[in-house]
Amino acid sequence: MTAVLGWLRGLFAVGLLAGFYVVAFALLAADTALVVAMLWLMVEAPTRAGNWSLVIGGSIPAAFALLYGIVTVSRAEQHPPGAVLVHRDEAPGLWRLVEDLARGMRTRPPSRIYLTPEANASVSEEARLLGFAVGERTMHLGVPLLLWLKPMELRAVLCHELGHYAGRHTRFGAITHRGAASLRSTLFRLRMTARSDQAVPGYAWLFQAVIGCYAWLYLRLSLAVRRHQELEADAEAVAAVGPAVTGEALRAVHALGITWAGFVDRYLRPVQRLGFVPEDIFEAFAAMVDDPLVRERMAELREHPVEAGRSPLDSHPPLARRLALIEARHAGEPGVVAGEGPLLADRTPAARVQRRLLAEAGSPATALPRATWADLAAEAFAIELASLLLEAARGTGVTARPTLGTVLGLLERGEQAELVRRLTDAPEPEEQLAEALYAVTGQALAGAGRARWVLSWTRGYLLDCPQDPGGRLEDLVADAVRDRAGVAALRAELARLGLDVEAPVVLALRTVAAPAGRTTAARATGRAPDLVVEELGRQRKVAKVTMGALVATAVVWGIALVGSDSSQPYPPSYGLVLPTPTFPQYPLDPQYPQGTQYPQGTQYPPEPRFTDPLPGPGFTAPLPTPGLTRLIPLPSPVIPVHLIHDVAPGDTLSGIACRYGTTVESLQELNGMGAGTRLVAGQKLLVPAPWQGSGGRGAGCG
């Protein structure tokens, strides 16, 4: 039965992929037919082909974007970022375990194992002959899973992945995945082409609508099959290690994945942009996992695995449903037991994964011991937030360099709302202001040598002040933000600590011997994502091809106009055929028969006067001569240009939209933000060039 289902799924995947070809080539055929018809009209009736530049100039960019998407269908699947091939002699225990598990599940083991920096695992298989032939098998296994999962939990994860092989999911899954990737790539390029062709009503919008409808159908049909395959792989893992272990493994991977992503996004990458990294990333993560508060949160995630922001296009079923089905299965005798010994003979493969992970940022960084890196990270986070508040204070009309005393003075004068407006537009702004004031206060104490920052894995940083062991200072800061009457108590406490609030606040890293300077000025000069840069480069090349085609076509059109007869705009075969007129018969006077002589004095009947409805056969109808007053101007080539805006402290989406003459909705769509408005200092935003903006200004723009 499994083999039959595998073949049916294979035919289904091939049919979906073939449908993409059919839709794409139908659009290209219609576009080509329109261009050919316009070229024919330019030669046969050039005076009637005035819109040729719009047809050709709009068709070429859309056709190139669609063709590029078709070409990517046949590309080989890429490995996850940072993947490193691990040889058998580097991890004999891991290879032996995988092969033993595959043998127990009666399936062929993978021929290649890659280690990745993700807290995840996956398998794939080369799709030969559209998946109907057996290909090379590859397993990707995250180093965090190897280092932090319990032995039986890791075996459950491996059994789940090998279950995809046993169920023949990977043969045609590669085709389905590749087709989905190609559809996403094609839609992305059509969307960028459509947005850059604002001066030319091209066909990219039409192509995008058609391909988008097919992608909607494709993803929902294919993802329904993939979700069912995940449930089948869960069943294979349950049969191998039992429902209890499988469920615990799924919970552990969920909690570990969220914690690892938080470590990379909140700690590793921000400090790396300042030029510093820990000597051993996995050692630093181990310190984070060993923190009591972090372990408590991981336990909560295991007990209540909530999926935040789940997409309807997720390839896996909801976690709650998977756990319910796993835990409802009968607990049989597990066929796999935990083994002994390390799975990695040495840390060389993990070190290579770490180098790949750090190389993704593209900027050099200095490796520091874990403790030194942690202190630097805490100080950098505090300086960043403190600089944002001081910049907000400068924007309220302060002429001198803002200090802690400046901020306290603004709070005493009741200008809290103005500070909040310039500081953040995030929800709960009062808490944001209190956090920023705590950072400025702590940095002033640290600069005076009366305190230091220490890293907190849950808050980012904490102030270690020997003269304030109870942490009373943090409560006073919160009171000063809530009520301006509390500012006096905060001033008194700072005076007791011996701090001059009017002294300049040092915004330089003091942890390392060679300070990196202001953290707000030490941001990386990075660029847009590689995919965006590649697409902009491709569009520039297409713009040159389009311009060349327009010039060549203009020459042909000009020659056709010179050789055409302006007095006869229609081809000879379309000459007018005029009907021969017929004349009505008027009767004579009925009193006198024909031939009778009229008496003298008789009033003769008036001579009939004929009004010809049309001229005679020999008459040539004068047709108006078309006057060619001016040539239709050729549109300039539209070279898509987007600017990259570095988000500065205090920037908001509405403010950026006003500055570039666009709208918040346009910025959200261009940067794939959905309905979100949250910005982070140092973030790179794609914005339209001033001459390509929407032209609209929001209601809040001055």
What order do the helices and strands come in, and which of them pair?
Elements: H1 2-44, H2 52-71, E1 84-85, H3 92-104, E2 112-116, E3 121-125, E4 137-142, H4 143-148, H5 151-166, H6 170-196, H7 204-241, H8 243-273, E5 276-278, H9 281-290, H10 292-303, H11 319-327, H12 348-359, E6 366-368, H13 370-394, H14 404-412, H15 416-423, H16 429-447, E7 452-454, E8 462-464, H17 472-482, H18 487-496, H19 530-562, E9 642-646, H20 653-660, H21 664-670, E10 684-688
Parallel strand pairs: 2-4, 5-6
Antiparallel strand pairs: 1-2, 3-4, 7-8, 9-10
Helix pairs in contact: 1-2, 1-6, 1-7, 1-19, 2-6, 2-19, 3-5, 5-7, 5-8, 6-7, 7-8, 8-9, 8-10, 8-11, 13-15, 13-16, 15-16, 16-17, 17-18
Q: Are there runs of 5+ residues with pLDDT below 50, and where?
A: 513-527, 568-639
| Estimated helix fraction | 40-55%
Strand tally: 10
The pLDDT mean sits at 77
Structural class: mainly alpha
Number of helical elements:
21
> Whole-Å distance between the termini?
69 Å
Shape: flat
Please tell me how large the radius of gyration is: 38 Å
Largest sheet: 4 strands, mixed
In percent, how much strand structure appears in the residues? 5-15%
Strand order of the largest sheet: 1-2-4-3
Features:
mainly alpha; 702 residues; two-stranded parallel ribbon; flat
Short note summarizing the structure:
The protein has 702 residues and is mainly alpha-helical. The chain is built from 21 helices and ten strands.
Can you offer a commentary on this structure?
Mean pLDDT is 77; it is low at 513-527 and 568-639. The protein has helices at 2-44, 52-71, 92-104, 143-148, 151-166, 170-196, 204-241, 243-273, 281-290, 292-303, 319-327, 348-359, 370-394, 404-412, 416-423, 429-447, 472-482, 487-496, 530-562, 653-660, 664-670, and strands at 84-85, 112-116, 121-125, 137-142, 276-278, 366-368, 452-454, 462-464, 642-646, 684-688. Helix content is 52%, strand content 6%. The radius of gyration is 38 Å and the shape is flat. The longest helix has 43 residues, at 2-44. With 702 residues, it is mainly α. The strands form 4 sheets. Strands 1-2-4-3 form a 4-stranded mixed beta sheet. A hairpin with a 7-residue loop joins strand 7 and strand 8.
